[in-house]
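For the sake of transparency, this paper describes our internal protein records without simplification. The tokens are whole numbers drawn from a learned vocabulary of local backbone shapes. One such record is reproduced below, unchanged from the form in which we store it.

. . .
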Amino acid sequence: MSFNCGYDLETEDQQRLRFQVELEFVQCLANPNYLNFLAQRGILKDKAFINYLTYLQYWKRPEYAKFLNLRIIHNTDCCLIMNLYRYPMCLSFLDLLQYEHFRKEITSGQCAKFIEDQQLLHWQFYIRKRTRLLQQAASSSSANNQENSSQHLPNSHQMTAFK
């Protein structure tokens, strides 16, 4: 006997709406203050809600996770300012919410504040560090390409042998 959630009975519009609602909810999980809000109201103790969080694990599959990583392009007077990924930590928090210990700890405002501070530090320094590492890799790759191409070029002594 198979369990049917009734999703196959939904219209296309209902499926689209459910997708959007679940997408937005999973994205909200990236906010530790929202998690704290849920915990303080006892929502994270509700067995049905915990089951819902387990159900939402499907967002970790690549065909769904790609929707969590949509790029926002800020454009002012046709000038690209920045390319950002939205809600990059929501899946990590979705994983953490599977653990009772985390659900208890996030009830504390201090815990939520600490996590928020760590997020901000990560975002502040990760972009700089990643940019620096990418530049170093590009420079190294460029230097290796120049070395390899110069090794394949004949020197002037070899060129005179063909004259």
The chain has one domain: 16-137.
